[in-house]
Design goal:
single chain, mainly alpha, 13 helices, 0% strand, globular
Length: 289
């Protein structure tokens, strides 16, 4: 069960990294919230097209407050991310995005009353230190893109906490109504500055929508099995994916510092996974059955 949850979460990270490549390209000539609007629109449209009978009105009535709250968090978070991502290197953006596990640990402790071990805190902050080593603070101070992406990371972290609370909800209904509300919220924000996209832009935003559903599905499947604090450290592996993809698509060459920091990140992630605790829990479960 633990391995399955990890695989689902790693799958969502891979989809997220590939989506960032598309967002970085589209955001160079389209407003960020417009990219976000089309992304959520195509996500809702594809679900309605493929699973019309699975979408439950009863689920909407019972969970509409969760849908609206999640949609508001995603709308602001994704809109800010799409707006500021094209303005800085992808690897640096991932450094800001990877503050999400630290925020998830804190929010999980205070909002969900989860027990966070010292080992998990140590491993998470060790990994975050490795991420910070890659930032050139002299060449890239705390400028507005970095602040905007950090605020976006805060909204994504709160959304992760909300996903944990609503993990038992019907997945298709949850994805559809969240995407529907998010597209409406994004449209309200970008309405005055809406630009006419090209056919290729529409195709890429449709890809974002479908991939977004797959990513969100993987996250929900992972949170059904494990606590947020147990899955969150795996988020750091997205940094390596983003660095590699940034090198392939945007010729962003990582420095030696990036590879040195990678060792610290791997060690910290291994420490934060706290597998010994899970093995004890699984042993007790097998004995009791």
């Amino acid at each position: 069960m633990v391995l399955t949850a990890w695989l689902w979460f790693l799958f969502s990270l891979f989809i997220s990294a590939t989506n960032d490549i598309v967002v970085k390209s589209l955001g160079s000539h389209l407003p960020g919230f417009e990219v976000s609007f089309f992304r959520f629109f195509w996500a809702a449209f594809s679900l309605a097209l493929l699973y019309p009978k699975t979408i439950s009105i009863e689920s909407w009535k019972a969970n509409h407050k969760v849908h609206i709250t999640r949609a508001a968090l995603l709308c602001v978070g994704m809109g800010l991310w799409s707006s500021f991502l094209p303005r800085i290197p992808l690897s640096q953006a991932m450094i800001i995005n990877l503050s999400i596990p630290v925020l998830s640990l804190i929010f999980g402790r205070f909002l969900l009353k989860e027990n966070i071990t010292t080992r998990q805190y140590l491993g998470t902050f060790m990994s975050l230190s490795g991420m910070l080593l890659t930032v050139n603070w002299q060449a890239a101070p705390l400028s507005s893109p970095i602040i905007g992406l950090f605020i976006s990371a805060c909204f994504f972290s709160l959304c992760d906490i909300l996903n944990k609370i609503s993990a038992k909800e019907s997945l298709v209904s949850s994805l559809f109504f969240t995407a529907l509300y998010s597209s409406l919220f994004s449209l309200l924000i970008v309405w005055q500055n809406l630009q006419v996209p090209s056919y290729s832009d529409l195709a890429f935003t449709a890809l974002l929508g479908v991939n977004g559903n797959l990513m969100f599905y993987g996250m929900l499947k992972a949170f059904q099995t494990l606590k947020v604090s147990q899955v969150a450290p795996l988020k750091y592996f997205e940094f390596f994916l983003a660095t590699f993809l940034g090198w392939i698509f945007f010729q962003e060459h990582p420095s030696l510092v990036v590879f040195c920091a990678a060792s610290l990140v791997l060690i910290g992630s291994a420490v934060a996974l706290d597998t010994g605790t899970w093995r004890k829990k699984e042993t007790r479960t097998c004995v009791s059955t």
